[in-house]
Structures are given as structure tokens and as C-alpha cells.
Specification:
The structure holds two protein chains of two kinds. By secondary structure, chain A is mainly alpha-helical. Chain A contains 13 helices and two strands; from the N terminus they run H-H-H-H-E-H-E-H-H-H-H-H-H-H-H. Chain B is mainly α. Chain B has two domains: 350 residues, ABC transporter involved in vitamin B12 uptake, BtuC; 77 residues. Helix content of chain B is 77%, strand content 0%. Chain B has 19 helices and no strands. Chain B starts with a helix and ends in a 12-residue tail after the last helix. The chains are: A mainly alpha, B mainly alpha. The interface between A and B is large, with 45 and 43 residues.
């Protein structure tokens, strides 16, 4: 019995909590990609850099608050800096839309043209971010590091394995939950949200019903920028902020969106967790778990690992490719918000 | 634009490019200028490859990096001397692993096409075969990999290559890229264009991951240095009689002269390749085949109705373009003299090449070449230009100013931003690029 509890704690500590955290970050990113796809109908390659930009502004605001002595311990200060990040990112994205995307939208450019344009925006934002904050590592986390320490857990329960819960992990999971609930409430219960869904479902019909396309597009960009800022900041809090990391995050995010069914918000969230957990499950070393659950005299040489840890990120691409081949519409058959 | 410009556009653009290189030669030295020229030529070949896929057929391949890396890998596998101890230690296991892999793939294909199960059952059968094959592979593969990587890891720790001249690696690199392109094309070409983009981007990342982590084959992040050269070494040149006299004639120090001479040799080789490729692709574009490709690109439904096999043609052109990129990748490792898997990042090897094609003019081979030249030139020279610009602009500030220091630090990143702006401006005001596609009747 104790062995089973120990094994479960071990899995919880190294698999379930990190999986939920990483999954929430991916889900927030994938939601943004899916919204752009659903309403504006293109794959936004600049989304990773948008996340980095939002996180950067939040970091700058956090530094400002910290120098003024503002603190909300035990929570990280960055949480109250996020609104500033959102505001600036929304502004930037709307300006980019006005000067870049709108022209091509009015001419009904093909999705591939938009894709190439988003690559241009990606270059631009990438350069802007590195110009403002530099390519290096930025740490902006303050507040209490652990909510539950492994040692305390061991003393509390008497198990030999510890379960630790980091502040950043809790903040990530809780914030993601709140955002997702708010998003669905907005999409299903407000007039604007409904008009967005209608527009995504059938553009011509929505226009005939008197929905203002410019307003729908603007609202979409605002939501996307807000989601990107929150997602980017949470990822930066949890790991650390490095501009080029967000570019690498782009592929798992696309993978999440497509696995869940691109254009479908519910799918994006499910996809985020599917990708996160499969990365962890396939690269987790099960040696200790097997030792706990197996017979007492069991001895193992190998780590009982399905794939080397180096291949962690490759897992998401493999899943992506498999989904694209077998079921390109994704788990939740996408294309409607 | 004046009519004269339109009439002599290609000549003017290429003369401007040559002029820019001369300016660099005069201000920063001939050697720097030739280095840029060589990389311009390789970039031009890569963008020719992308142009074959995008410009002729409208295939959106964002996996350029993967194909370039495969070409680079061929440089290692062909030219490096074999490590005989490693072969003795683990060669058998590796060969056995390859047999298992081939067996797994063959039996999955067999299960896919030759059995009478329903679609769902087939997925499970194939999954079972793959899991079994993977378990077997790990069982035989892992010990030999460990054995190989244990042999003198600081110098070798890999199987080595075939020890052939590195020029052989160029066509082989193209072949590597082509065979991988065949597999990718079979899988992904049926997808919509933006899915194809994401799929190829993902696959190219997988290729890089494999190259970084399979150290028994590539030495991974430890890099392979000292690839043999197709041209003479500077040291040898400096010691030969005729070269010393020759340098004296040109009134250059022997050291500089040898560096310049080697770079000119490379440049000539590259120009030979690019001329051949340009001739081939121009001929192809004018041929009935080129007309058919354009017809498919512009309206694939109509082309299919005329009896053209669109999928097969797409696959063919995907393979051709990828082969050209693989060739360029092999040339790049040859020029560098080393294979550094960490150096492959999508910004530089995929997206920048795309910018070259779009700016140059998609669908026009000369456009792809000039795009490759201009963008690479700019990519390299943006840093000194940016630094100079910032220094001039901030010269009014006090030398100790923090803002000034920050701006100067940031100048290096200006090029990303500027490339982005150039791309966006081109797409808006000149979507056809510098040299637009010729409209033929």
C-alpha cells in the first residue's frame, strides 16, 4: 500500500504537476493561434513572438513596480504587472493589424500570403524584443518559491517520496483556469462573443446579419494579444524569460492547436494537455516507479525510459505529424469557434 | 519606374550587387567581400531550391533547414575517414539495427496496403508493429551505440565517414535530401498549404533533433571539424614557389594572397554549380513540363481535369527542390570545413531563405538568385551599418549615457527588424518581387 502511494506521489511530483503546468501554458498559446485561425483564417507564425513581447512588457512593468517597492508577497509581483503588458501588447497588435494585415484582408489575400506576412511580423517583433531587452536570460520571479516543500510533505505523510508544489505552477494552473472559463463565458454568453462565433462559422452569413467585420477582427486581436501576454508571462515565470525560447514554443503550440482541431477553442485546450502529457510520459524515467510497484527483490539496470529526454520537444512534432496524417481535422474536428 | 529600368532590370540589379561587393572589398578588404560572395552564392542556390517548389508549383515548404542539414550531414558521411575501431565495436549492431528499422517500415507498409483489415484495425496493427520494432531496435542498437560513443569520445566517438573526396558529398547530399523529401512528400503533400507549412517545419525540427542526438552518426553537438577540402590549403600554397611569385606580382602579402586565392577557388566552384542549376531550371521552366507545372499551380482542378496527375507532379517537384537545397547544404559544410548541428536554426536556414525568394520574385529563377544575394549581403552587412547608424545618431549624447550604450548593444538585432520590415513592405507594394515572373503566352 505504502509502495503504491509512494509511486503515485512520485508520478504526481514529476509527471502530473509539471504536465498540468506546461499543458496550461501550451493551452493558452494554442487558444490564441486557434482564434486567429478561426476568425482571420490563417496560421499566425508571429504568435510565439507576440507571447515574448507581452512577457517582455510585463517584465519591464514588474521591474518598475519592484523599484517602487510594490509587492504582493507571497504572490509574484508580475501578476499585477500583467495588465500593463496586455495593454501595450494589444496596442502594438492593433497597430500592426492596421498597417499590415488590414490592407491584405481588404484584398482578400490567400491564407498563404497571410502566413508569409506573419513571418515578416515575426522577424520584426523578434528584432524589436531583442533590441529592447536583449537576447539574454531575464529572471523576474519574486515571492515565495514553494507552496508545499517536498520535505514538509514527507514529514506530514510519512512517505519516503516528497511532493512539492511551486508557486509558479499553482499560479499558472489557476490563472489558466480563470482565463479559460472567462473566455468560454465570453464566447457563449456575450453579444460580441456570439458575433465572433458567427463570423468564424460563416463569414458571408455573418456580414448579411449585420455583424461589423472590423469590430470582430479588432476584438479577436485584443483577446489574442491578452492571451499571448498571459501565456508568455506565465511561461517566463515558470521557466525563465529568453526571447529565442518562445520561437521554439511555437511548434508545440501549433501542435496543440492542430491536435485539438484548429479553430476549436475546446480542442486547443485539450490539445495543450495532450501534447504536454505525451512529452512527459514518453520521456519520463519510470525506474523508481517500477521499483516501488514491482516485487521487492527487483533490480533494474536501465532507466525504463521510452525515449531519451533529449527528444522531449521532438515528441510534440511526431504527434503533430501523426495527427496530420491520420486525422487532419484534429480530435475535436475544428474550424468553428 | 522608367522604361529603361524595365528593359535592363536584371543587368542593373546584378551590377548594383557587384558594385556593393566592390564597395565592401574597398572598405573592409577583398577577403571579407569574397566571404560574403561565397555565402551569397550558396544562399542563392538554396533560394533557387525553394523557388522551384514555391514559384513553379506553389508548394509551401518551411522545412528548408532540415534539407540543408541533411546535405551537410552527407559532407561528414562521405568525406571523413572511417573510424575502424568504432566499426569493430558497434558496426554489426548498427547494421542489425538498420535491418530491423527497414523490416519494421516494410511490414508496416505491407500491413497498410496489402491487408484486408478495416482502417481502424490497420492503425492498431501498424502501431503494434512499430512498438515491437522499436523495442527490438533499442535492444540491439543501444549497446552498440554506447560502444561506439565510448571510443575516444573527445576526437571521434562516431562511425566516421567513407573517406571519399568531399565533392562526392554534393550530389550525395542532394540524394539524401531527395530521399527524405520523397517520404515527407508522400506523407504531407495532400495537406492544405498552411498545414503543409507546419508539417514541414515540424519535420525539419525532428531532423535537426536526430542529427543533434544521434552522436554515433554525427558526433551531435560535439561538431565534426576538419572536413577535407576540394581546394588547396593556405599553408601549402604559402610554401609553393609559383604562388609566392604570383603573390609578389600582385603586390600582396603571401598570407593574404593565399586566403583570397582559396576563396576565389571556392567561388569559381560555386559559380559553376549555380550556372548549371540556372541553365537547368530555365530550360525546365520553358519546357512543356514547366508550362504544365504553372498550369497546376494556377489552377490544379483544371489541370487535373486535363488529365495531369497533380499529386505525382507535386511530389516530383518537391523532391527536386529539396535536392537542390540539400546540395546547397553540402556546399555550405564544405565551405565551412565543419559540421555544426547547433548552428541550424529556423530563422537563418528557413525563414531567411523564404524572405530571399519573396523579395527576389517568386517564380523567377533570376529573381531567386538576386534575392539570395541581396538579402544575404544585407544580413551580414546590417550589423556594421546599424552600428554606424546608431553611433552617428547618438553622437550628440554624452559618451557615458546608459541609453546610448543600450542602443549600441541593440544595433546587432536591428537586422531582424529590418528584414521583417523589408518583407512586409515588399509584400504590400511590390508583391511580385525585384524580378517578377515572366508572363508567357
Amino acid at each position: 500500500m505504502i509502495d503504491i502511494l509512494n509511486a503515485l506521489t512520485l508520478l504526481g511530483n514529476f509527471l502530473i504537476i509539471p504536465g498540468l503546468t506546461y499543458g496550461s501554458q501550451l493551452a493558452l498559446g494554442a487558444l490564441g493561434v486557434t482564434l486567429v485561425y478561426g476568425v482571420l483564417r490563417f496560421s499566425n507564425f508571429a504568435h510565439g513572438e507576440t507571447m515574448a513581447f507581452g512577457a517582455m512588457i510585463t517584465i519591464l512593468a514588474t521591474w518598475g513596480l519592484q523599484s517602487m517597492g510594490v509587492s504582493i508577497k507571497p504572490l509574484p509581483t508580475a501578476l499585477i504587472a500583467i495588465p500593463v503588458g496586455i495593454a501595450v501588447t494589444v496596442l502594438l497588435i492593433l497597430v500592426i493589424d492596421k498597417f499590415v494585415y488590414r490592407y491584405h484582408r481588404e484584398r482578400k489575400a490567400s491564407p498563404v500570403t497571410f502566413l508569409i506576412i506573419s513571418i515578416g511580423v515575426m522577424f520584426f517583433l523578434g528584432g524589436l524584443i531583442r533590441f529592447i531587452i536583449g537576447p539574454g536570460d531575464q529572471i523576474f520571479f519574486d515571492g515565495t518559491r514553494f507552496i508545499l516543500k517536498a520535505r514538509e510533505f514527507r514529514e506530514m505523510t510519512g512517505l519516503s517520496e516528497g511532493l512539492s508544489l511551486k508557486m509558479t505552477q499553482t499560479v499558472t494552473i489557476v490563472t489558466a483556469l480563470i482565463i479559460v472559463i472567462a473566455m468560454f463565458w465570453f464566447l457563449n454568453h456575450t453579444r460580441t462573443g456570439k458575433s465572433m462565433r458567427a463570423y468564424s462559422d460563416n463569414e458571408d452569413l455573418a456580414l448579411l446579419s449585420g455583424i461589423d467585420p472590423n469590430r470582430v477582427v479588432m476584438v479577436t486581436w485584443i483577446i489574442v494579444a491578452a492571451l499571448a501576454t498571459v501565456g508568455g508571462t506565465l511561461y517566463g515565470l515558470d521557466k525563465s524569460f529568453k526571447p529565442f525560447v518562445y520561437m521554439q514554443l511555437l511548434l508545440p503550440i501549433f501542435a496543440s492547436a492542430i491536435v485539438g482541431g484548429v479553430g476549436n477553442p475546446l480542442g486547443a485546450i485539450a490539445g495543450g494537455y495532450v501534447i504536454a502529457f505525451s512529452e512527459l510520459i514518453l520521456t519520463f524515467a519510470y525506474k523508481k516507479v517500477v521499483l516501488y510497484l514491482g516485487p521487492d527483490n527487483l533490480e533494474l539496470d536501465s532507466l525504463v525510459q521510452l525515449l531519451g529526454t533529449n527528444y522531449k520537444i521532438a515528441v510534440s512534432f511526431i504527434i503533430l505529424v501523426i495527427v496530420l496524417i491520420i486525422k487532419p481535422t484534429g480530435l475535436f474536428s475544428g474550424k468553428t469557434i | 519606374m522608367p522604361a529603361v529600368y524595365h528593359q535592363y532590370r536584371n543587368q542593373i540589379l546584378f551590377s548594383v550587387m557587384a558594385g556593393l561587393l566592390v564597395v565592401v572589398a574597398l572598405t573592409q578588404g577583398l577577403s571579407v567581400s569574397l566571404t560574403i560572395l561565397n555565402l551569397c552564392l550558396i544562399s542563392a542556390i538554396m533560394s533557387l531550391g525553394v523557388n522551384i517548389q514555391w514559384g513553379y508549383a506553389g508548394l509551401f515548404n518551411v522545412g528548408v533547414m532540415g534539407f540543408a542539414a541533411l546535405g551537410g550531414l552527407s559532407g561528414v558521411l562521405i568525406s571523413m575517414p572511417p573510424v575502424s575501431e568504432a566499426w569493430q565495436a558497434g558496426g554489426l549492431g548498427i547494421l542489425f539495427g538498420l535491418i530491423i528499422t527497414t523490416g519494421t517500415i516494410a511490414s508496416s507498409l505491407f500491413a497498410w496496403s496489402r491487408t484486408k483489415y478495416s482502417k481502424k484495425q490497420r492503425y492498431w496493427v501498424i502501431a503494434g508493429i512499430i512498438i515491437l520494432g522499436y523495442a527490438l531496435l533499442r535492444l540491439f542498437f543501444d549497446p552498440s551505440v554506447d560502444a561506439i560513443e565510448a571510443i575516444n569520445p573527445s576526437v571521434t566517438g562516431y562511425l566516421g565517414g567513407l573517406g571519399l573526396p568531399i565533392l562526392v558529398a554534393w550530389p550525395v547530399g542532394a540524394l539524401f535530401a531527395a530521399s527524405v523529401a520523397f517520404v515527407i512528400g508522400k506523407i504531407a503533400l495532400g495537406l492544405r498549404s498552411d498545414y503543409l507549412a507546419i508539417a514541414t517545419l515540424g519535420i525539419s525540427e525532428i531532423i535537426i533533433f536526430c542529427i543533434k542526438n544521434e552522436e554515433w552518426l554525427t558526433r551531435g553537438v560535439k561538431n565534426v571539424n576538419g572536413l577535407p577540402r576540394p581546394v588547396p590549403y593556405e599553408i601549402d600554397l604559402q610554401q609553393t614557389q609559383w604562388f609566392q611569385e604570383w603573390a609578389l606580382d600582385f603586390n600582396m602579402p603571401v598570407d593574404d594572397a593565399s586566403a583570397v586565392f582559396v576563396k576565389i577557388c571556392y567561388a569559381l566552384l560555386f559559380i559553376l554549380v549555380i550556372a548549371f542549376l540556372l541553365w537547368l531550371s530555365e530550360t525546365a521552366l520553358k519546357s512543356p513540363w514547366g508550362r504544365m507545372m504553372r498550369a497546376i499551380r494556377d489552377n490544379d482542378t483544371a489541370a487535373a481535369a486535363m488529365g495531369k496527375d497533380v499529386t505525382w507532379q507535386h511530389l516530383r517537384i518537391f523532391i527536386l527542390g529539396s535536392a537542390v537545397i540539400g546540395l546547397a547544404g553540402a556546399m555550405l559544410t564544405t565551405l565551412d570545413g565543419q559540421f555544426t548541428p547547433v548552428g541550424y536554426n529556423p530563422l537563418r536556414f528557413t525563414f531567411l531563405i523564404w524572405v530571399m525568394v519573396i523579395i527576389g520574385g517568386s517564380g523567377n529563377n533570376w529573381g531567386a538568385v538576386i534575392g539570395g544575394f541581396f538579402i544575404w549581403f544585407f544580413w551580414i552587412e546590417a550589423e556594421p551599418i546599424g552600428l554606424w547608424l546608431i553611433e552617428t545618431l547618438t553622437s550628440g549624447m554624452s559618451p557615458g549615457s546608459a541609453i546610448r550604450a543600450h542602443l549600441q548593444e541593440g544595433a546587432a538585432h536591428m537586422r531582424l527588424m529590418t528584414v521583417g520590415i523589408i518583407l512586409l513592405v515588399t509584400l504590400r507594394y511590390a508583391p511580385e518581387g525585384l524580378i517578377p515572373e515572366k508572363k508567357r503566352q
